[in-house]
Amino acid sequence: MRPHTSRTIAGLAATAVVGALAVSLPIAAHADSTSGVTITEWMYNPSAGKGEFIELTNLGTAPVSFTGWSFDDDSADPGTVPLDSLGTLAVGESAIITESTDAAFRAEWALDASVKILAGNTVNLGRADEINIFDGPDEVANLVDRLTYDDDGTGAVKGPRTVGVSGVPNDAAALGANNASQWKFSAVGDAEGSWTSTVGAIGSPGTSRFAGEGTDPTDPTDPTDPGSAWQHVKINEISSDNPNNPVGDAVELVNTGDADVDLTGWLQTDSGAAASATAFAAKLAGGAATTVIPAHGYVYFSSTKGLGSGGDAVKVYLPDGANGAAGTLVDSVEYTGGEAGTDETNGFGAGAFARCPDGTGGFVSVAGKSFGASNAEACETILENPADNPVPTLPCEPEGPSGSGTLPAGALAPVAWPGSATVAVADAQCAWTTATGPEGRDVSGLVFDPSNPNVLYSVKNKSWIYRLVNQGGLWVPDTANGWGAGKQIFFPGSTDTQSNQPDTEGLTIGADGALYVTTERNNAANDIPLNSILRFDPTRSDTQLVATDEWNLTAEFPELHAGNRTEANLGFEGVTFVPDTYLVANGFVDQSTGKAYRPYEYPLHGTGLYFAALENDGKLYAYALNSDRTFHRVAVVDTKMGHVMDVQFDADTQRIWALCDNTCGVTTTLLKVGASGAIVPDVAYEKPAGLLNNNIEGFALAPASTCVAGTRAAVWSDDGIYGAGPGSATEGHALFTGGISCDLGLGGQGVPKPAAWSKTTVYNTGDRASVDGKVFEALWYTKGEKPGSNTSGAWAEIAIAADGHDLWTATRIFDTGDVVVFQGRTFKALWWTRGQTPGGSGGPWSEVVAPTTPGGVPAWSAATVYVGGEKVVYQGVTYQAQWWVTGTAPSPTQKYGPWKVIG
């Protein structure tokens, strides 16, 4: 186990830091609080699992009770996450807030039981967010510390993107300053002593370098006690230049206190460990040697370790370790390439890295040097490090993949991709920049137009849809019908870009030719889940499309909490339309009834179900979406991958294809209707070797009609347009294409048919048998009679129509009220019948004619039996039956017939 920093040592050493912090922390950062509790580390998004954490450290002079304390994100609401359970934090002690379980976090980071952990936090941090710590109920007066960050932002909020690598302060000046630009990535072996967790994350949770090391530097029983004046000594200036100006690799200290401080035996090192520190020889301005730094004065010296121009660190220690070794850390500063002097990889004219103002300010690069004296004059020429604001080399902003992982236990083991190992770029570079997404990322779902294989639709999760056509191997925007720059899409009701910002992730084409698009939230309120399916009419020429319909399914997923930005981003990804014909033919079971799926039981749902992919749990949720905007959940399907980013029903393989991105190593799982009627995983495929392990969030298969030499195209979308990284030929591209075999050799599926009929077998009433692919049921005891050989015999053929109704067969017995389908028309039995064909009038069948619109009046049919009061439409006129009638057509000229004109 990794032990926590010694409470006695760390607590006493913290006094050193607090003296410096008292003059450097902005008052606004901690309001009226004098507790000394400070944010010292954070990671908003782990590389795997649920290891997000925040570290708080007591850098004060007394223990702090967390009674009445709380944490919140940018909602800044005191009391949201109570911290009382952390108890009392000793001086120098650190505590952790994490979304993990206590046991999981300790195991991941090898922490012993002494580290205080508040586990199970559900107020998760986002990429751009805020950490707020309160010691009471008032959001202003009780604000202890705050850190506002956004790696995509500018100025003080632009900090490191802490995905799998924690953020730590550059130096003590960053503590409590609410300036994320003064924070940096942790690194294995850095001044924090950071290490790698069991899942590959980097950080140092539970211990902070600002709590110090070594023995008590102000112990009155220690004859070598230097007192407290040393607390006012700070590193003030650094230069990595080698020439003697005044010395090579120069370091300056400043004493902001009112008393001289003896430097005898003090030690210094670079980025190495404290054990490598050695004594330095200080000089005053003018070069005179000294062992004392005067009150409000300066000394400088040449680093005992060479300072690298490409980035390094300076750490100064008291000699209060064993036998005069480095003990208490007085101060430490790190810098990057070119910040502290000439560097060939990033030369921008810096002469030194200096505090502005002396002793209390943050470090900046300056043109001049002022070793042994105030930095005031040098601070008049502050230089901007080009590396802090790199000039984009592309008109878009690629983003590296995050969250890479492997398939969970229970997932199908993937086999090699059944096609070409190579993939090719399939779009123009930086092709997807929009007004709402100028960075050009976030192309997610893909779907081929089933009526035109040269058309591919894509959706971008900043509220845009594209209609693409293939030109020379690249997918480019169709220039017809207003599609040239894509179309901005909106929730129903308005085109207000401030309040109406659907975070659109996946899309499919329904049987009606419309586009159906999933959302997981409204980006105008991006910490609130909004899992909807929107319908759009792609034939409209408008450049802005407002959804014609919305099915809001948010309440179906209470596990995704409002106010939690992380959970709001784990909602619907892909969606696909699965036709009823496929489901019925294979005996799919409706989980809501426990019986075979019967589409006619959902009369407003159309001709298929919509399977929505939920990223949070890797499951597909099958819904009947009704024309009145209601819905019914029919089934839940587990892909076993843990997460899912896109889903597609492929009519040619008769399989549902589910994609998981780099979270699962970019794995595709095919699902089928199993023998029980449930949809289950069938086979899983690895990604093609040439497809990068990026945030691949979209996938589409070209129809089999495009097969050439046994191969058809597959297309993937890289959400981060990262490709192989900066400068690579694939950087800035979202679409990649490869080949897949047209014959995958997939086996059968569905609920098995009964065993083949045998003439030597005895069959009792209700027994079933198969003959020539047809299913028959015994009406009574029989042996030797072949099913289908006698229309009035012992066997009745059993068949099911696409809508779930029984198909009429000549050998089956139907009772009063039974509904059947015959030649695409629906009929109801008026009495017991067998062998009498539906249709015509006067027989045992009455046609059931559905209205053309919900709640409307059906058309008249000569094969329907009507009773008084029933209404029909005939030749554009509405009639009402006066009495029982069949076969007589309505007529407006009949005054005394069975029909009366009513409209």
List the helices and strands and how they pair.
Elements: H1 7-24, H2 27-30, E1 37-43, E2 53-58, E3 64-65, E4 70-72, E5 81-82, E6 88-89, E7 94-98, H3 102-109, E8 116-118, E9 128-134, E10 143-150, E11 167-169, E12 183-185, E13 195-196, E14 202-203, E15 233-238, E16 250-255, E17 261-262, E18 267-269, E19 278-279, E20 282-283, E21 289-290, E22 292-293, E23 298-302, E24 311-317, E25 329-336, E26 352-356, E27 362-366, E28 382-383, E29 424-425, E30 443-449, E31 452-460, E32 464-471, E33 474-477, E34 487-490, E35 502-509, E36 515-522, E37 529-536, E38 544-546, E39 549-552, H4 565-568, E40 572-579, H5 580-585, E41 589-590, E42 595-596, E43 608-614, E44 619-625, E45 631-638, E46 646-650, E47 655-660, E48 667-673, E49 679-685, E50 696-701, E51 711-718, E52 735-741, E53 768-771, E54 774-778, E55 795-798, E56 806-807, E57 813-814, E58 819-822, E59 825-829, E60 833-834, E61 845-848, E62 865-866, E63 871-874, E64 877-881, E65 885-886, E66 899-901
Parallel strand pairs: 7-8, 34-38, 56-58
Antiparallel strand pairs: 1-2, 2-7, 3-6, 4-5, 4-9, 9-10, 11-12, 13-14, 15-16, 15-26, 16-23, 17-22, 18-19, 18-24, 20-21, 24-25, 26-27, 27-28, 29-52, 30-31, 31-32, 32-33, 32-34, 35-36, 36-37, 37-39, 40-43, 41-42, 43-44, 44-45, 46-47, 47-48, 48-49, 50-51, 51-52, 53-54, 54-55, 57-60, 58-59, 59-61, ...
